[in-house]
Amino acid sequence: MQESGLKPILWKEKKLILLDQRVLPGSTSYLTAETLEDCIFAIREMVVRGAPAIAITGAFGIAIYLNALSSKPSPAEFKKKLTELLESRPTAVNLRLMIEEFQSRFTENENSTLSLEDLRKQAEIFALTMLETDLNDNLALSKNSLSLFPKSPSQLNLITHCNTGALATAGHGTALGVIRSLRDAGHFLTVFADETRPYLQGARLTAWELKEEGIPAFLITDSMAGWLMGSRKIDAVIVGADRIASNGDTANKIGTYPLAIVAKHHGVPFYVAATAKSMDFRIPDGSHIPIEMRKPDEVTSFSFLKDENGKPFLNEGVIAPIGMDALNPSFDVTPASLITGIITERGIVSPVTEENLKKIFGQPFV
């Protein structure tokens, strides 16, 4: 199974090079992160986005931070830096799990006596391993998904939401990785990509990836999905996840929940594609997932779309009265009852229940 040729995260000469997703598709440029603060900026300001990519960027940020020190940081100082990193994007669980794993392996047990040089080496290995593991997990996830579709080449019409491809991961993708793998398996695809208001990840990023891959696709506004499912045969909706609770409730980009409701009404299978790193078994259900609130101007204008020189593409692109307030939750939670199955690198969870999640992931529930 082929991985995507897109490489949004590169580690060269102890520096992190990130494809700047803020300026796609208008231009292709890269941001070089040379400090932990650069990595935090990249995560918070959406240079990099997608739960797996955020966690990987954070891991390299830790390595960069340690490389810049002349002496080993105190536990309090290091904890403060990790807290700043964690607060850059609060909804996706991958970042928190990465930080906790790093702490448990290197700073809160017998390994806390490591020298600064050894800690630096371990941090770099940790981040590089995350990068490789995420890619392999996405490839395994995508392979598992093939059992949900006809074995012989078929015409498949698919809807996806937000961006879940190479740009959001180590290089292959979750939901968009499934789509790539279906294409590679010989299926004839037509993909309908939600534009994903207000930040337009579907229009700017998913559409760009689909064109780069040569996969036939149409861009639709989020509100067109109901019409589409009512007027044409749709074989499945496939989305990603930023956090999955113990019972299978799933937080994903805003607009996922209503898409699941419409799919349920029309009898269209609704699949979530996510690796184990998106599972949060400490919380019982989706009501415990924190929802990030972003700036109102992402809703009232397109001024956040800038070129590499910081100039807005659309001359500020104001689309609402000046001074109009707006709500801008970045995510919503789709109840497990609306999800046909969760596609993971360890297998497919269907029906989506806490019991079935336990069968796949063991007993890490609290």
Low-confidence spans: pLDDT under 50, at least 5 residues? none
CATH topology of the largest domain: Rossmann fold
Summed up, the domain count is 2
The global form is globular
- What is the CATH class of the largest domain? Alpha Beta
Can you write the helix and strand succession as a string? EEEHHHHHEHEHEHEEEHEHEEEH
Structural class call reads alpha/beta
| DSSP strand tally | 13
CATH superfamily of the largest domain: Translation initiation factor eif-2b, domain 2
The helix content, as a percent range, equals: 25-40%
Strands side by side in the biggest sheet: 6-5-4-7-10-12-13
Q: How many angstroms does the end-to-end distance come to?
A: 36 Å
Number of helix segments? 11
The gyration radius over C-alpha positions equals 20 Å
Tell me the β content. 15-25%
CATH architecture title of the largest domain = 3-Layer(aba) Sandwich
Tell me about the biggest sheet? 7 strands, mixed
Mean pLDDT: 92
